[in-house]
Write a structure and sequence with these properties.
2 copies of one chain form a homodimer. Chain A has helices at about 1-5, 15-20, 20-45, 50-70, 85-100, 105-110, 110-140, 150-170, 175-180, 190-215, 220-255, 265-285, 290-305, 310-340, 340-345, 350-385, 395-405, 410-420, 430-460, 465-485, 500-510, 510-530, 545-554. In chain A, about 75% of the residues lie in helices and about 0% in strands. The first copy, chain A, has about 550 residues and is mainly alpha-helical. In chain A, about 50% of the residues are buried. Chain A has 23 helices and no strands.
């Protein structure tokens, strides 16, 4: 056999030997654990304290521990935490599905509140957490943490940059966690506000962080603040517009080409691919991919979904939910396994006490930062809104505050990206910050994750009647329509949107949300649905594909 | 700003800057091209000469060319061909879906023919192609191709190893190509034989290649041949058993736990994950993952699929097909783009003439190798089978021969793995073999891909009536059942399978396939379905989840 060893032919062919064994082992372990999570999560369904995310996290911790023991305390890493995996493959389907399944009426009804929380709230939280972290670093003395080789002025600047990074990382609400903890069916208002805040948040965070990078903190004036606001508006509008454009394009394409005639699979495939494309294009253009793919999901569920065959509708609805579900479970499993990684704990030379202290302070900052914007902003929102049903009562404010506290995989990924030791400096402050982040994430996921649902049950459902409130909305919408009809201002065939004149304007002032909704419905029915299709829309052209599909499937 | 540049903080946070731009660009390009393929494929649906795979291949070639021009002739690689991507992520869903959607009755009816072609056929083809390649290398003179730094005895051995590698790579039928070219609805017999051969092939190829690695060619005797046969049987049986076990486990788990009570998504998720798990475990145990996942798909469609809710059934059926469809299109796109890769053409110092000559000879060898086993084996199969309807006529033999000629991504992946220049030697024979493989793949995909469907229409459909033949089968099966009932040997409640005694044995000899099918159905109804569920099976226990689900959905 010695002869063969010398030959320059690699003796590896066919799958069994082509694949890297460690990859195969890692995938096998993860898939097995995912199956276990699903089964355990199903069995614990009735248990209100547990849910899939906590199960996955704990299972990840346990299996990380087992791997650690098996490898003799050397390494618990089967798969190295990879930001690309997270941001390219796991996050987009989750956010897209959230947009696809979101209750659109509820979401847009609360849109002003969502924007208020997502923009102003994030800025308040960012400032408070950054300030807190800055004071913390001053107290700890960054120099004692290993960075001695810089001038005093640099250290001062570093503290600011570190503090701002911490502020940006921890002020962002984790939308993936929100999805796990809140139930859209039971608490639609809470879900739309907290999750919506998390989506809008993404754009705010990008702007804030870019600002931290490029601004000179000694020279901030009103002009700079206005410029930042402009950047945010640009980012928000372009991201949203991109998502809407891709969504409409898919609706128009599917309606025109009528893939369903030949194959259901093509319809489903093109919906999946275009949704993913919207995220990737947004990333390519340095926009907020999360915002884009979220709005793409909303548009697709409003138009595209109604243009496909019945079986495609069932398939897309459930397969998007399934993919998102697998991705969410995977993320929590991943975070759990990663937390046990012995290397990063070893690297952090700070004592366990310091780690715990830093993470306690960080979590306290998150608590305070969130409280500092939820209560004031909710009251501002209450002042603007006239109707009692729209007001955010104190108990709702408490749940909004609590439900947004969870910090999860997004926080971990950002923290790794910012503080991983592959940087230029061998500073020991990085590992400390990473381990503290992990502690905060574990604590908030387990505690907030298990307490939120019981808290909501205790505070909200006991004396609230959300369905009645929704019922009132419908009734008042009908009233509005009657009002409009009486005024006769909107049923003319001019096709121009000047219809709601003086009386319309008065209505807009009195019931802004409902009026906007009514106007949008009119616009949608007259201009959008004829082109892009949509629920119950019978096309004008007889024998059109959409009509035929409706006939077939009804 | 200079101060900031010196700070050891990496200024990159939030998705837009975390992601590697080249990855984002590559994914965006691929997703866009996939969408284009689907749209073009849809528009060309009526065209019998074109199909999605050829569209994807040509689109890949064109976009590879565009990238080449844009990059100034430097590189056409956006994504480097990655065997792991292919074998871990793209191949399993395709093969699983093929098993999931395969017409089981047709498949098992032809099982003996499939095994004959997949085992004996592959060995014959392997021997012929290896021999041809060996003579080719002798003729070309391997020494002239750059390998001068070895002793004569080594060169002789190398020729054998090279020839065997070529034989193993090119004797394997590409099951992905078969799926693209053949239509299960139109030509069920052809599809089941050629595709089934491709699946069984995988196990044969592993055995053959391992044999090439470890055998001393100067010392082959009957004992060695028997040992190889034993290895193959072990591999075939364990792979199949693993697939069946995982499939049954999923059926039992879903029937017992009844996920659908809480969530459709859990059912779909667990089906997807367990199917994938079967492939990964097989790879982990060095078995044939393709065989395993194929049989897992068959078992899942027979049992598991019937245990889930109606919406899960629609979702799984279409989402598996969609994922497989996307993966197939992606593979052809990938092969097309990869073929234009300028680097590998530059590396191959051999002239275009030599490349073309080598690839012509290789393709000729594939043609001859396939002809050499299809016609003899089909005639042997005809001798065994008694009934005229089961015989493989000459025109069927021609289509079997032709439809299995296509060589695609599997061939490319194996060729890269074997001949990529990352090996120890800087021999120029490697690039030559890679470029020749690419030429063979492009030629066979375009020519065979476009000619097969018209050929089938011309040869098969004009004077054949496959549906009538299927009808005859059903009738004769009913006759058989009557015969069994008359003999009274099978309706006793003993639960023992000794029922078909003397008369049963006579029947088994006369109609082996039908008898086996009948016995299997009886066994299935009595033992398997009560435990694992299945179509139309009403469970004995009243109020059982499966029954409730049927009630809900019927």
């Amino acid at each position: 056999m010695a002869i063969f060893d010398m030959l320059p032919v690699k003796f590896s062919l066919f799958t069994s030997s082509i694949l890297n064994t460690s990859t195969v082992v890692a995938i096998t372990v993860f898939v097995t654990l995912l199956c276990a999570c699903i089964v355990i999560g199903h069995l614990l369904e009735e248990n209100r304290w547990a849910n899939e995310s906590i199960t996955a996290l704990l299972l990840g911790l346990v299996s990380g521990g087992v791997v650690l023991l098996v490898s003799g305390g050397k390494s618990s890493r089967i798969l190295v935490f990879n930001e690309e995996l997270f941001f390219i493959y796991l996050l987009p389907p989750i956010i897209f599905n959230a947009g696809f399944q979101v209750k659109k009426k509820q979401f847009f009804k609360n849109f002003s509140t969502i924007l208020l929380f997502g923009i102003i709230g994030t800025i308040i939280s960012f400032c408070l957490i950054s300030l807190g972290a800055f004071l913390l670093f001053k107290r700890l003395g960054l120099t004692s943490l290993g960075i001695k080789d810089y001038l005093a002025v640099h250290i001062e600047h570093m503290k600011i940059v570190f503090a701002a990074a911490i502020g940006a990382i921890f002020s962002a609400t984790d939308s993936v966690c929100t999805l796990q903890v809140l139930n859209q069916e039971e608490t639609p208002f809470l879900y739309s506000v907290v999750f919506g805040e998390g989506v809008v948040n993404d754009a705010t965070s990008i702007v804030l962080f870019n600002a931290v990078q490029s601004l000179d903190f000694s020279d901030i004036d009103v002009f700079t603040a206005l410029k930042l606001l402009g950047t945010f508006l640009y980012l928000f509008c372009t991201s949203t517009a991109l998502g809407i454009t891709v969504g409409l394009l898919s609706a128009f394409g599917i309606k025109t080409l009528y893939f369903g005639r030949h194959s259901t699979d093509r319809e489903v495939a093109i919906m999946m691919l275009m949704a993913y494309l919207s995220y990737m294009v947004a990333e390519l253009l340095s926009l907020s991919g999360i915002l884009t793919v979220f709005f793409c999901g909303i548009v697709m569920s409003h138009y595209t979904w109604h243009n496909v065959t019945e079986s495609s509708r069932v398939t897309t609805k459930h397969s998007f939910a399934t993919i998102s579900f697998i991705a969410e479970t995977f993320i929590f499993l991943y975070v759990g396994m990663d937390a046990v990684d012995i290397d990063q704990w070893k690297e952090s030379s700070a004592s366990a006490g310091t780690s715990l202290a830093v993470s306690s302070i960080l979590f306290a900052l998150v608590l305070i930062g969130r409280a500092a914007f939820v209560y004031p902003l909710a009251n501002i929102s209450n002042c603007i809104k006239r109707r009692d049903g729209d007001k955010i009562e104190l108990r709702k404010q408490v749940t909004i505050w609590w439900a947004g506290l969870m910090r999860g995989a997004v926080t971990i990924a950002l923290s790794y990206n910012q503080f991983s030791s592959s940087g230029t400096s061998s500073s020991t402050v990085y590992p400390l910050l990473i381990t503290s982040t992990i502690i905060v994430v574990l604590f908030s996921t387990v505690v907030c994750g298990s307490v939120t649902q019981p808290l909501i049950n205790a505070v909200m459902l006991r004396n609230a009647k959300p369905t009645t409130s929704d019922g009132t909305d419908f009734a008042s919408l009908d009233d509005l329509r009657l009002l409009f009809l009486e005024n006769g201002g909107s049923n003319d065939a001019s096709g121009n949107q000047e219809a709601p004149r003086s009386s319309g304007f008065r209505l807009l002032m009195r019931y802004p949300t409902h009026t906007v909704h009514y106007l949008w419905r009119k616009f949608d029915d007259r201009f959008m649905r004829p082109v892009f299709g949509g629920r119950g829309f019978v096309p004008v052209v007889p024998g059109s594909p959409t009509g035929a599909a409706d006939d077939q499937t009804s």
